[in-house]
């Protein structure tokens, strides 16, 4: 069974691109462009890893992380933070990496592969 990745970013193009990159590498991937959609998708199909844009308009990434991590079964799920803010990983205890935009898709795939090894 393929591992499931939840991609969260306010930019629909980035979400679509990342979902395509991940599915081409054998992952199951869903994308969300906002809080309500992300929470709904995480409840419906809990992911093995989340990529989270920390700088979405009108949304504080650390608060969305908190709400996602509070869902049943999500407390230990690794997060890859997508942003350019220094030290942001301190706000997210389950952060396994911080990736700046623009990002190298192969590097990101390697980070996800390392973080989702069972």
From TrEMBL:
Residues 4-116 form the Response regulatory domain. Keywords: Phosphoprotein. It comes from the Bacteria. The keyword Metal-binding does not apply. Pfam families: Response_reg. The keyword Amino-acid biosynthesis does not apply. InterPro entries: Bact_response_regulator (IPR050595), CheY-like_superfamily (IPR011006), Sig_transdc_resp-reg_receiver (IPR001789). The modification 4-aspartylphosphate is found at residue 53. One of its GO terms (biological process) is phosphorelay signal transduction system. This is Response regulator. It comes from Desulfovibrio psychrotolerans. The lineage of its organism: Bacteria, Pseudomonadati, Thermodesulfobacteriota, Desulfovibrionia, Desulfovibrionales.
